[in-house]
Here is the input.
Amino acid sequence: MKKVNINEIECGDSVEIEKKMTFEMVKIFSQISEDYNPVHLDKEYASKSRYKKQIIHGMMATSLFSGLFGTELPGEGCVYKSQNIKFKRPIYIGDIVKAVVEVKYISIENKTVGFRTRCLVKDKVVIDGESEIFIP
Here is the structure.
């Protein structure tokens, strides 16, 4: 786990992670979130949906941002202040999601850092947003 001092952070700094989204992860996330929507869990139901096959919970992919913030940039001790999210495309079970966070602004006075947050599948943006993080 890293801990980056706010004075060492620069606009444009970024970190990313890639993770394959599995059905096992969807089942666990359903239990955590209490979201048992059959479009996530039932292959037959999902085949008749607008997506034609099972999709993951969008919030499951966005949770990768939290991991990047807490362990990479800014790292230890930071806490979410806000997050906005736009879901642009579905993410299917088996997709490899690349989550990327990029520093957009730094407020030393307020001890906050603003980020652009994106998830991509096959180089296409599936989730786009912005966040603000408190720095310890």
About this structure: The domain at 11-134 is CATH 3.10.129.10 (Thiol Ester Dehydrase; Chain A). The longest strand covers residues 96-107.
